[in-house]
Design brief:
Elements (H helix, E strand, L loop, with lengths): L6 E4 L3 H12 L4 E4 L3 H9 L3 E2 L3 H7 L2 E4 L4 H16 L5 E5 L5 H13 L2 E5 L2 E2 L2 H5 L4 E5 L2 H6 L1 H7 L2 E6 L3 H29 L4 H9 L7 H11 L8 H13 L1 H4 L4 H15 L10 H15 L1
Parallel strand pairs: 1-2, 1-4, 2-3, 4-5, 5-6, 8-9
Antiparallel strand pairs: 7-8
Helix pairs in contact: 3-4, 4-5, 9-11, 9-12, 9-15, 10-11, 12-14, 14-15
Length: about 300
């Protein structure tokens, strides 16, 4: 059973809010901080405890979970705020659930460890709503003993998890998974627009496609949103684009071209230019529609 010490949570956006729900439902107390005070208030409204700073969370929590936007933020919070707040205290743990640059995360884990902070990366595969429903998959990178110490917290957040390897390995697995996932999402959007232009009802076509050999889980998580033009965010465009840029940055290191990913990134960039960066990444279907309209007008 969870002890009385709260789990700390830094970042209370889509993922952080979902993680808070999972932890609270599992019997943990949660102390959280976000630069947006409204999100701190929202945590308090569902049974968590709001904090006024990262340092306050770090001082009252043995385990701190990070759900931040990017690697820069993670490095700043760990080395600029958590470590100074702990001031040499040991037997403290950080679980990074953010999708980050795997090489920088590996070196951050080493630097944090040299100062007594036990760092584990556990990026998640799944939308924020999947995480909230207990369907997220944790991808663990780091020391197995450290993972064992915080296993109750990981299990509460992600009922399914896999230890991938040393620090950085979880992020590498997440990037490869997200590459496949993103291409599936764009393929679904293009297929739905194509079916519609062929005269098929997109909702009925989606029902058929979900029973066909073309099925992917994206049809369940994003298909209805695309058909209904419901782009309320579960995974924002700007976050997906950030991950795509992380993947493209690995091209030189792995010696592989990623031509389909480059197309996906360009589509996401077009969505951002159209003011859709804060919308759900299923809105890529709007960019596919825009390109379709241009092709029709050009004939």
């Amino acid at each position: 059973m969870p002890d009385a010490t709260p789990v700390g949570l830094i970042g209370l956006g889509l993922l952080g809010g979902a993680l808070a729900s999972r932890l609270l439902e599992s019997g943990f107390s949660v102390a959280g901080f976000d630069i947006d005070a409204r999100k701190v208030d929202a945590l308090a409204a569902v049974g968590g405890t709001g904090a006024s700073s990262v340092a306050e969370v770090a001082n009252q929590s043995r385990v701190v979970v990070l759900a931040l936007f990017d690697t820069d933020q993670v490095e700043h919070v760990v080395e600029g705020e958590i470590l100074p707040a702990l001031d040499g205290q040991t037997d403290r743990f950080v679980i990074c659930a953010s999708t980050c640059d795997p090489d920088r995360i590996a070196t951050l884990a080493e630097r944090a460890g040299s100062r007594g902070l036990r760092f584990l990366e556990v990026p998640v595969s799944g939308t924020s709503e999947q995480v909230r429903r207990g369907q997220g998959v944790g991808l663990i990178g780091g020391d197995r003993e450290t993972a064992a110490h915080v296993a109750p917290v990981i299990d509460a957040m992600f009922p399914r998890s896999f230890h991938i390897g040393r620090a950085g390995s979880g992020g590498r697995a997440k990037l490869a998974i997200n590459l496949i996932l993103g291409l599936n999402r764009v393929a679904l959007a293009e297929g739905l627009v194509f079916a519609s232009r062929l005269g098929l009802d997109p909702a009925r076509f989606l029902d058929v496609a979900r029973q066909s050999a073309a099925y992917s889980q994206v049809m369940d998580t994003k298909g209805l949103k695309m058909v209904a033009d419901d782009f309320s965010p579960e995974g924002r465009v700007r976050q997906t684009l950030k991950d795509a840029h992380l993947m493209l940055a690995q091209v030189g290191a792995v010696g592989q071209e990623l031509p389909l990913l480059a197309v996906h990134a360009e589509i996401l960039e077009a969505c951002v230019r159209s003011g859709e960066g804060e919308q759900d990444n299923s809105i890529v279907i709007e960019e596919i529609r825009r390109r379709g309209r241009g092709a029709v007008q050009g004939t």
